[in-house]
């Protein structure tokens, strides 16, 4: 299987990093494949925090600055969730004089080793990660409703999604939307989905509730689907994850088989002519 790549975009605070980390955990559990997350928010990297990684010894910034450094040295494996993470450096000093186009070189290397790659992006127009748009296949736009005034919500969303979609289209990416931080009481959600799917023509792949467990999990350094798998947001994220699996791989995708299943399949295939012998 060639490595599918997803780039996650959206406004600041919309939940991009939250979705990056949680969808990665979901894909790992659901597909048993090696999932790598890359912190493409080079100025305010926070992906590591979502996995309790606060001061990486070797960061993405180190491998971006030094092409002779093996990029795999910046990959961390989270034993609790099975997800691989490439965290950025929290030091302001490391951000200066950075050539963000180096990100494409590094992601290119990672594509050789991992099964699914998710690139987290900075706010707004994702200049830092633009160089990777040629290497990925999907763009997931995270839209939050929480801080949108009701009277202008549609105009704001249209503005945001249309612009980001135009960038995705430029690179031939398949584009989808996740609505995040949705309060149950917000009645206009139906209208928003209609706007995004009907007028803009982008599928809404998930609607995730505003849930205090999400920041609580962040404080614990563990994605919410792992920390509180039964809470409202986790259930919604898992549903979005399942929609994404179907969107990306079609309906027939199954877990990559384990050793015994593979042995069983080999034996069965070997016996097949005899079992079906007439
Ligand atoms: N569904 C949600 N419910 C409640 N809080 C959320 C939800 N999604 C994200 N958050 C919180 O919002 C803040 C911003 O999320 P983050 O993923 O860092 O956004 P971004 O990466 O888009 O800037 C974090 O404190 C996070 O815990
Ligand atoms: Mg972020």
From TrEMBL:
GO molecular function, one term: ATP hydrolysis activity
GO biological process, one term: negative regulation of cell division
InterPro entries, alphabetized: CobQ/CobB/MinD/ParA_Nub-bd_dom (IPR002586), P-loop_NTPase (IPR027417), ParA/MinD_ATPase (IPR050625)
Record's GO cellular component terms: cytoplasmic side of plasma membrane; cytosol
Ranges of residues in domain CobQ/CobB/MinD/ParA nucleotide binding: 7-224
Transmembrane segments: none
SUPFAM superfamilies: P-loop containing nucleoside triphosphate hydrolases
A Pfam family of this chain: CbiA
Name used for this protein in its record: Septum site-determining protein MinD
Species of provenance: Thermococcus profundus
Lineage of the organism: Archaea, Methanobacteriati, Methanobacteriota, Thermococci, Thermococcales
């Amino acid at each position: 299987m060639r490595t599918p790549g997803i780039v996650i975009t959206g406004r600041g605070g919309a939940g991009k990093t939250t979705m990056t980390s949680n969808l990665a955990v979901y894909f790992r559990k659901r597909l048993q494949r090696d999932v790598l997350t890359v912190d493409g928010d080079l100025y305010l990297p926070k992906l590591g925090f979502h996995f309790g990684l606060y001061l990486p010894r070797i960061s993405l910034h180190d491998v971006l600055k030094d092409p002779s450094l093996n990029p795999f040295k910046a990959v961390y494996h989270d034993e609790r969730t099975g997800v691989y993470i490439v965290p950025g450096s929290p030091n302001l000093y490391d951000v200066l004089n950075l050539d963000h186009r180096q990100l494409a070189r590094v992601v290119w290397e990672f594509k050789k080793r991992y099964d699914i790659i998710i690139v987290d992006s900075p706010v707004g127009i994702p200049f830092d990660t633009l160089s990777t748009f040629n290497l990925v296949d999907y763009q997931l736009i995270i839209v939050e409703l929480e801080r949108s005034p009701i009277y202008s919500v549609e105009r704001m969303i249209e503005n945001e999604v249309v612009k980001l979609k135009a960038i995705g289209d430029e690179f031939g990416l398949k584009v989808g939307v996740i609505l995040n931080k949705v309060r149950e009481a917000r009645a206009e959600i139906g209208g928003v989905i209609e706007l995004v799917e009907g007028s803009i023509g982008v599928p809404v792949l998930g609607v995730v509730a505003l849930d205090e467990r999400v920041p609580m999990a962040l404080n614990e350094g563990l994605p919410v689907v792992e920390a509180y798998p039964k809470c409202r947001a986790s259930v919604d994220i898992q549903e979005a994850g399942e929609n994404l699996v179907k969107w990306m791989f079609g309906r027939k995708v199954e877990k990559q088989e384990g050793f015994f299943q593979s042995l069983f399949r080999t034996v069965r295939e070997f016996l097949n002519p005899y079992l079906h012998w007439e």
